[in-house]
Amino acid sequence: MKNLDWIKTAIIFSSIVIAGFFIGNMHKTGKKYDRYVQVKGLSEREVNADLAVWPINITLAGNDLDILKRDIETQNTEVYNFFIDQGFDKDDLTKGTTNISDVRANLYNPNFQNAEFRYIAKSEFTVRTKDIDKLQNALSESLKLISKGILLGSKNEWRPIEYIFTGLSQLKPSMIEEATKNAREVAEKFARDSDSQVGKIRVARQGLFTINDRDQNTPQIKLVRVVSTIDFQLED
Known about the structure:
CATH class of the largest domain: Alpha Beta
Structural class: alpha+beta
CATH superfamily of the largest domain: Protein of unknown function (DUF541), domain 2
Number of helices: 4
C-alpha cells in the first residue's frame, strides 16, 4: 500500500513539473509572439485615363414652339454630324431627351412673367469614348460650332468631361506586392534599431485603392494609390 502511495505521489509531482514546463514555455512563446512591429507600405502609380464621358447640353430659347422645335432638332443633327466628322463611331454617341419648358408657367417665380423668351428647350447628348486624344481634339474643334450659332454646355460645368481609369484590376497584384515590399523595408529599419530581425507577416491589412486626378489641370492623368498596414514578427 505504501509503495502504491509513493507511486501516486511521484505521478502527481511529475505531472505538476511537466505542466509547469509547458505553461512556462507557452508564456515564453506568447511573449515572443508579442514582439512585432506594425508598419504601413505605400504604392503609387501614375496612369492615363482610358475612358472619357462628355455629357453635353444644347439649350435654346424662343416664343414660337414650332420654330423652337425645328431649331433644336437642327442643332442636334449638326452636333451629331460634327462628332461623326471628327471620327467617332455611332456607338460613341447617345442622343438623350429634349425637354421644352414654359417659363411663364412657373408659379414660384413671378419674375418669369416678364421674361423675353417664353419657352426654353434643352436637349441632351453624350459622347463616350476610349480615345482620349480624339475627344480632346474634338473639344478644341467644337469652337467651330459657334459660327453656326450652336453653344455646347455641359451638365457638370465645373468638370465638363469626366475622365475615368478602368484598369485597376490589372494593377492591383503588382501594387499590393510593391506596398508589401515597402512595408518590409520600413520594418527592417525598425528591426535594425532594436537589434532584431524581421520575421514572417503576422497580420496584413490591405488598404483601399484610391484613384484621383494628378492635379486640377490634367484630369486625364490619374494617380492610383494604396496603403497597406502590415504587422511583422520580430526575431532575435
